[in-house]
Amino acid sequence: MKTLILSLSSSILLLGCESNTNKTPTVVHQRLIYDSLHRQKAFIVNLESTIEFKTNSLKHSDYDQFLLLIDKDSFALKPEYNADKFSDKKSIIIKYLSPLGLTSDRFENPSISDKILKHSHIIIKKGGIVARDSLYKLESVITLHRTSNIKTE
């Protein structure tokens, strides 16, 4: 009888722990942002990374411990606080912004895209690489400068 009670209580404990520890993050989307608002001779290029956590609750330490590695350089991933963070009951999606310090004289520079696709990884500061989702995609976007003499009707 004692073993039955002990095994039932340990099963319940394990099931409870299993649902809370599945916080494995995956990179689902990345965007290279070519900034034309502050452009002088070249675009300033930043990276937005979207990471999904398969859980319905996170502590600050669960989502604030990421770095982007490109070759031998590391960049902090700064979480953006947006509505997506709390949007789904089964998973939490958080967007991160990384100023890369890169410039490009043209939009959709293939060398920058290749650098992100082939030579970059997102890691957790404690150790471990964050895997890319099977539906991962990288896209390039541009910020547009709106002049004051444009008339809208």
TrEMBL record:
UniProt cross-references to PROSITE patterns, sorted A to Z: PROKAR_LIPOPROTEIN
Protein's name according to its UniProt entry: Lipoprotein
Protein's organism: Flavobacterium agri
